[in-house]
Amino acid sequence: MVKKLLNPLVVSAFIFVLLLGSVAHLMYGSCQSSKWHYIVQNYYTPSWVPFRDEYTFEVMAETNIGGLIFIEDFTGIWKKWDKQGRKISLNTYINSIESGKQFEWYKSGAISIKKMCNNGLLISIEKRNEDGTLNLKEYYDPKGKFLKRELFEKGKLVKTETEE
Asked: Which residue, 30, 32, 154, 155, shows the most beta carbons closer than 10 Å to its own?
């Protein structure tokens, strides 16, 4: 019985089924299951694969920081990675609207932007230089109206503006 199971044809078929299952899981599982699901689905999966109807990606800026358009209401944390596996952004959504903390990273791994949103309205934003020092802080009221801006040089506050 054991010799029949170790037949090269049976072993090859078993390995093939394992590989096929793994590839199918990476292609069709949720892209938020793991970093590798995200990378495979967004950089290596052909455009004709049916899962792409679930959501679409739309690049909003040249800085590689994109926006998402959800077809169905999404509530939770959405993470994005680049092709090398470095984290690009982490966004919190409630009913497909940015709410809560939002983060973006430089390729070096340093945080570039920290935002706080409430129902899609910006409450505060903190921008950092690639070396980690503060560059800018902006504050908004709960209705999204500009309150003040703090400008930094080498991490030290140099100017505060109250008009946009």
From this structure: 32
